[in-house]
Amino acid sequence: MVYPIVVYGHPVLRKVAENIEKDFPELCKIVEDLFETMYKAEGMGLAAPQIGKSIRIFVIDGTPLAEDEPDLSDFKKVFINARITERSGDMKLMNEGCLSIPNLREEVNREAFVKIEYYDENWQFHDEIFEGYKARIIQHEYDHLDGILFTDKVSPLRRRLLKGKLNAISKGKFEADYKTTLPGQKVR
Ligand SMILES: [Zn+2]
Asked: Model-level pTM greater than 0.90?
């Protein structure tokens, strides 16, 4: 099932999401729906809060970018109850966007490496280090679980300049090729 994607200004995007238990109802279905919703919107990652569920799951599929980023050729993963235990390496600026903030891209500074513990969709535990593009996508999606958006991470000056745009997005003034849920629950 394809969910509408929750848009900037909706309170669920600002909540700290909850860890889940292995027997969480319809966990398989939620993971499947996250992928389906992400593909429909042509995204590379999607976190559960973006479909209105305040639980600590996100999915990533970077493989469509593999032609330009060979690193991503096998990077399709499910992260459940993830916990970043270490961030290291140089900070790097890179252009980011987010399905919850349509038509807006900004340069965001992030660490080059992350160490992360998580369960996959088969409830296997992992403790891994990711770098580069992978670390970038993971940090973006992980932030969603803590109620943080990439626009929070731009410089104070940029943030001030973005205020009007973000306000407009929260009022539905944007074009998106996928279904969205506006603050106030209106689906369109
Ligand atoms: Zn996002």
From this structure: yes
